[in-house]
Design a protein that fits this description.
about 35% helix, amino-acid transport, 10 strands, Amino acid ABC transporter ATP-binding protein, 4-stranded antiparallel beta sheet, transport, ATP binding, binds adenosine-5'-diphosphate, alpha/beta, binds magnesium ion, ABC_ATPase_HisP-typ
């Protein structure tokens, strides 16, 4: 892709000056993040630095008190501290007046974001196949037979074609997480968010899940991955973002951030995890 094409395509995800409080605690403190289509962004940071909250804001599971998130150039949410979410037209931002999306539009946007959680979150009463097929049916994107066909293709892609009729409890953690990834893919999302996808796994199961994510990374899927797997981050990330106390402290290529960190907080964190 030429630089020119890149420049005119909107960012897959854009986070602008996002602030988020829980009660009196400020959890996100002016986060800025731009993720281009096809780019793999890894978010690093100590526990409690706001990584999960940032993913939840991007997926619109949480609303920021200040700032906005846009997906492919479409605004997800804009609020000023103290304003109610129902406000019609928010204050003019740098790019002109942007209308807040309706709840319905928010749901439609969320349907274009895949989310893979630490604890898999599969439906225990559904087979593996139906776990993957459920979302496209529920969103009425596909009829059941087509959704199941898609699910079989995706299970094959994550190496689990033979587990289609099993139930989640019959699978290892690594297999369950690969089902969760197939389920995220079933929505044909514009971006997939991963929140510590391997941190609940026994060490010997981590590799199979990272291999599936790496396959997505090299096939041009836009990914935002929170992980403590530094070696993996170095291999797959186009950009590494280091978050501390709700702020992006530094960001850059893996070499820049991992080998030549400029901030004390980053150096301190890396010395503990490397
Ligand atoms: P990380 O994922 O980097 O460990 P989180 O985003 O989960 O950090 O949390 C950031 C801070 O926000 C922590 O201090 C956490 O306790 C607090 N927090 C997270 N979620 C909530 C919530 N729903 N209610 C209150 N506080 C929360
Ligand atoms: Mg977290």
């Amino acid at each position: 892709m030429t630089g020119e094409t890149l420049a005119i395509r909107p960012a897959a995800v854009e986070v602008r000056d996002v602030h988020k409080w829980y009660g009196a605690q400020r959890v996100l403190n002016g986060v800025e993040l731009t993720v281009r289509p096809g780019e793999v962004t890894v978010i690093l940071g100590p526990s409690g630095s706001g990584k999960s909250t940032l993913l939840r804001v991007i997926n619109h599971l949480e609303k920021p008190e200040i700032g906005h998130v846009s997906l492919n150039g479409e605004l997800i949410g804009v609020r000023r501290h103290g304003e109610r979410s129902e406000t019609g037209v928010p204050p003019a931002e740098g790019r002109g007046r942007l209308k807040e999306l309706t709840e319905r539009a928010i749901l439609a946007q969320r349907g274009r974001i895949g989310f893979v959680f630490q604890n898999f979150n599969l439906f225990p009463h559904l087979t593996v196949l139906d776990n993957v097929a459920a979302a496209p049916v529920a969103t009425r994107r596909l009829k059941r037979p087509e959704a199941r066909e898609l699910a079989r293709t995706l299970l094959d892609r994550v190496g689990l074609a033979d587990k289609a009729d099993a139930y989640p409890r019959q699978l290892s953690g690594g297999q369950q997480q690969r089902v969760a990834i197939a389920r995220a893919l079933a929505l044909r999302p514009g971006v997939i968010l991963f929140d510590e996808p391997t941190s609940a796994l026994d060490p010997e199961l981590v590799g199979e899940v990272l291999a599936v994510i790496k396959d997505l990374a090299t096939s041009g899927t836009t990914l935002i991955i929170v992980t403590h797997e530094i070696g993996f981050a170095r291999e797959v990330a186009d950009r590494i973002v280091f978050l501390d106390e709700g702020r992006v402290v530094e960001q850059g290529s893996p070499t820049e951030v991992l080998d030549h960190p400029t901030h004390e907080r980053t150096r301190d964190f890396l010395s503990k995890v490397l």
